[in-house]
Amino acid sequence: MAACYMESLQNEILLVEAMQAGNEEAFSILYRYYSPRLYINILSMVRDPLTAEEMVQELFTRIWQKKENKGIKENFTGYMYRIAQHLVYDFFRKLKRDRRLQSAFRLLAGEQYEQAEYELHDQQSSVILQKAIEQLSTQQKKVYELVKLEGYTYKKAAETMGISPLTVKEYLVAAHKSIRKFLLNHPDATLGLLLYFAVQAGA
Questions:
Q1: How does DSSP assign 180-200, residue by residue?
Q2: For the chain, give me the number of helices (H) and strands (E)?
Q3: What was the pLDDT predicted at 54?
Q4: Do 109-203 and 9-95 fall under one CATH topology?
Q5: CB 101 within 8 Å of CB 159
Q6: What are the φ/ψ torsions at residue 129 (nearest 5 degrees)?
Q7: Do 28 and 63 contact (CB within 8 A), yes or no?
Q8: Distance CA 130, CA 151 (A)
């Protein structure tokens, strides 16, 4: 899906300042403006209306609880987006521990995996992904490039590197986890990229 872009309110800075001072009405205005946009973006990832609604509620609960955080005033939409990233990641992390729920989700959201992979070819996402790849260890980077970018099988990559296919898989799992961690801390990373690596990690 497209990046979680949200047009800012014209008086957003004043509303955020008021919210940080404890003004509940300012908080309500921010909630009413942004919650529908966040809901739509999160729903496109988790594919369940109730789960998406709960995530939005949790997101704004965290904002209110941490309303005095300096980062909220500096970039409110960016702060919301980072919370959304973490919530989506947590959802898929929990999903991977429950095979029954995971199977049900894959039936509902199969097309979303394809869309997430498509985002890897988006110009902006590619730049971010390249930065994530560059921070991998030498072996992890080599395995990732051979298997994911050049299309090598585990066996062929293992032969090329002089290691076992199992070691190739271990390096790839570690690479996915490292890339996912990088994306979680990168404000410009799309939810699609995050979904892709949340699903791939540990595969």
A1: HHHHHT-TT--HHHHHHHHHH
A2: 11, 0
A3: 92
A4: no
A5: no
A6: -65, -40
A7: no
A8: 17
The CA-based angle 107-52-81, given to 5 degrees, is 115
Residues 45-103 have pLDDT tens digits of 777 788 889 999 999 999 999 999 888 988 888 888 888 888 887 887 776 666 655 55
CATH topology of domain 9-95: Rna Polymerase Sigma Factor; Chain: A (1.10.1740)
Place of tokens 């704004």: 60
136, pLDDT greater than 80: yes
CB atoms closer than 10 angstroms to residue 185: 10
The correct CATH number of 109-203 out of 3.40.50.10260, 1.10.150.120, 3.10.180.10, 1.10.10.10 is 1.10.10.10
Query: pLDDT (tens digit, 9 = 90+) per residue, 20-49?
Result: 999 999 999 999 999 998 888 888 777 778
Question: How do the domains of the chain map onto residue ranges?
Answer: 9-95, 109-203
Q: CA dihedral in degrees (102, 185, 7, 124; nearest 10)? A: -90
Which DSSP state fits 150?
S
Burial 113-146 (b: 16+ CB within 10 A, else e): eebbeebeebeebeebbeebbeebeebbbbbbeb
The structure tokens listed for 117 are 């992979």
